[in-house]
Amino acid sequence: MKRLSRFRRHKAAGPLLLLFALFTIGTTFQIADATTTPALTAEARTAAIEEGKQLFLKGCSSCHGLNAEGGAIAPSLVGVGAASVDFQVGTGRMPMADMSTQAMRKKPVYNEEQVQALALYVASLAPGPEIPEAATLNYERDGSAAEGGELFRTNCAMCHNFAAQGGALTQGKYAPTLMGVEAKHIYEAMITGPQSMPVFSDKTITPQEKLSIIKWIKAAEAEPQLGGASLGRVGPVTEGLLVWTLGLGLLIGVAVWLATKAR
Q1: What are the phi and psi torsion angles at 97 (to 5°)?
Q2: pLDDT given at position 162
Q3: Would the CATH topology of 41-131 be identical to that of 132-223?
Q4: CA distance 169 to 150
Q5: Rounded Cα–Cα distance for residues 20 and 31 (Å)
Q6: Which of 111, 22, 120, 133 is nearest to 77 (CA)?
Q7: Are 206 and 137 in contact (CB under 8 A)?
């Protein structure tokens, strides 16, 4: 004990303990960060594909065809990949009753396991974009909000509004708001191009740049409304219109009240 106490009082003991603690914490973080969901075995994958096929035949084949070849009102799903299915079904856009309208984000019909089974089945038909793994979606670590804001304003703001609040398109269509959307689904939308949205390949926007865009969207989502009602964050046009409408209405009301009182 005396020898241990003597070593503890040594002037090099503090730096050595600090280095040991930093090494231990860093190693633990690396191991935890590298931990991923184990891959499906061949048997489990086959069973999931079969389950997805049965779900597809019950809930999707009436529009997309028995073999996902497409039909008069729905496109072919051959080659769209698992990412497209995970986005459309995971956000509740599919299945939908009326294919003539734009699909809206709503509560999903299927649970996560069923969505994965459907995605695996469609992915088994032909190669296509895969669902991004959780390890590749660490936008907090790998993304840059400043770069993401610039990329968003260049590539996305003309449809989704410069504040990612959504906006109107032609022929009654619209670009939905990106507030409250999971990072995985934002990434999937960029690589699959759902509905009116173009596909942003890795040559157009690199994976790291996609993470930067997601980081900027999440920063905009968490930004507090210090001025009160956001009014869609579309700037002085909406704010001026609201003030003009309320102010003009107030003046008209005062004029009517004065005219009535004068009688």
Answers
A1: -80, -40
A2: 86
A3: yes
A4: 22
A5: 17
A6: 120
A7: no
Q: What one-character-per-residue DSSP string does 20-81 give?
A: HHHHHHHHHHHHHHH--PPPPPHHHHHHHHHHHHHHHHHHTHHHH-TTS---SSS---TTSH
Give the contacts of 156 (CB within 8 A, at least 6 positions apart).
164, 213
Separation of alpha carbons 81 and 124, rounded Å: 8
Band of the pLDDT at 36, cuts 50, 70, 90?
A: very low
Digit-coded pLDDT (tens) for 134-178: 999 999 999 999 999 999 999 999 999 888 989 889 888 999 999
Ramachandran angles phi, psi of 71, nearest 5°: -150, -160
> Does 1.10.760.10 match the CATH number of domain 132-223?
yes
131 DSSP 8-state letter: P
Domain limits, the chain: 41-131, 132-223
pLDDT for residue 22: 58
Say how far apart CA 50 and CA 118 lie, in whole Å.
Answer: 9
Angle, CA 25 vertex, CA 22 and CA 28 arms, to 5°: 145
Query: How much is the pTM?
Result: 0.75
For residues 88 and 235, give the distance between their C-alpha atoms in angstroms, rounded to a whole number. Answer: 31
C-alpha 206/C-alpha 189 separation (Å) is 14
Q: What is the DSSP string of 61-75?
A: HHHH-TTS---SSS-
Instruction: Name the CATH architecture for the domain at 41-131.
Output: Orthogonal Bundle (1.10)
